[in-house]
Amino acid sequence: MQFCPHCRSTLEELPWVGRVRKVCLSEGCGFVHWDNPLPVVAAIVDHEESGRILLARNAAWPMEFYGLITGFLERDESPQEAVAREVKEETDLDAFATHLVGVYPFHRKNELIIAFHVQACGEIRLSEELASYKLIAPEKLYPWEGGTGDAVRDWLVGWRGSAPPPVPVPMA
Questions:
Q1: Most exposed residue of 6, 127, 147, 165, measured as fewest CB within 10 angstroms of its CB?
Q2: For residues 55 and 34, what is the distance between their CA atoms, to the nearest angstrom?
């Protein structure tokens, strides 16, 4: 962000409340760009009918990588409601139980990931956002480095008492 969204003046980087922030110095404006992270929910989807974990490949991803179902928290929505909605929108599965796994910073995209283990049922039908999916037996699931991989690691520790080492993921 280079310009004030209120008065269009150039923003200046200044120390502000303990950090360097972009501030509008125009008289009477005082806008501060706080640059707060966006809340994102992530689902480790436990597909009841198969007893496996669902991983999905986003249609926009340039490489063959499978990850968790994720999406943004909407206004007036609890994280539990958001994760159930995202699972329904992206896979057409119905969530019947959600359990918090943890909260993780995702610095690369300035997001805060709120991860859940989601027990879901129904027939998998992917939205246009997703290109494909895999169902993985929990004992064959390995975490990846960073982002939602940290949630997978923590869930595996709770599920089996330990987690295998992370698999490096090439960055696009």
A1: 165
A2: 34
